[in-house]
Fold:
Amino acid sequence: MSISRRTLLKQTALTAGFAMSGLPARSSAKETPPKCPTEKDTFALLRTGRKQKIPVIFDTDIGGDIDDTWALVMLLKCPELDVKLVASDGGNATYRARLAAKLLEDCGRTDIPVAVGIPPGDSRGHQSDWIGEYSLDKYPGAVYKDGVDAIVRTIKQSPEPVTVCCIGAVPNIAAALKRDPSIVENARFVGMHGSIRVGYDGSPKPCREANVIQGIAALRDVFAAPWECTITPLDTCGLVKLSGAKYEKIYQRAEKDPAIKALMENYRIWLPHPPWLKHRPDPAKESTTLFDLVAVYLAFSEDFVELEDLPIGVTDRGMTVIDKSKRTIRCATKWKDMGAFEDLLVERFVRN
Structure:
């Protein structure tokens, strides 16, 4: 479904004078690879005397699984991160952008631009009842119709390296790399993708993971680009759930915190719909699996996980496999201290 609203694209100072990026020629194999920022470069921003935050582009298929909604709220509550753009991705992108925009407004963060990714569409989703009639032209902040262009320009204009945090399929990011391959010189990729040695629900057998199979070719392009890629596969992110006293602390914040109130409203509305859920928990007592929160964490810290440098390929079936012919990807394959990570989540969600 194409976007017809004339008021969708709200120009701000960020977009004034922007021209569509050309397609720079790709470097030949004989040329020196570009110097790309690493996690050390981005984490170093937190240790400067100016206490700089890490610039983040959040690329999300919010409105599918509820963990994207948790991830966006967490992102807003992390003092280490400066959200420069929220871009909808993974199909039905207008619906997803509407959800993100309404959530940002409820959280009092309309300073953050929202971008409509590819492909656009506004079909009903699992959280449509929460969105209601909310439209993008009601969003007080900036809205960009061309999400790929917004991603490119946000990276190119940032004085500091940008962390591109992706928690869904990645057609936006693959398209951005094609539009301007030089973005790798000022960005690093952090994603929730794949299954290396562990499958869903801690299964000892790796499996096809949803974010991969929904965009196999795009993820191959992202992994092949000459920038640093860090992922949390199911090996780590597939184990994260909150319950008991930890969950209760967050749930009780809904009475005082508009962000948590909106999160819990979405959780209740979403819970009856997904056909893949084997267990539908009591939303007052526990969460479902919070895959995407690990990717947000990896945008600013790696203390609680073990990372391996592994050459990762993506098969035609969507399996993420160790393949010596492929580029090295930094993979969070084990937890050092998942309990400490859960404590960090509680601290972030209950903070003002």
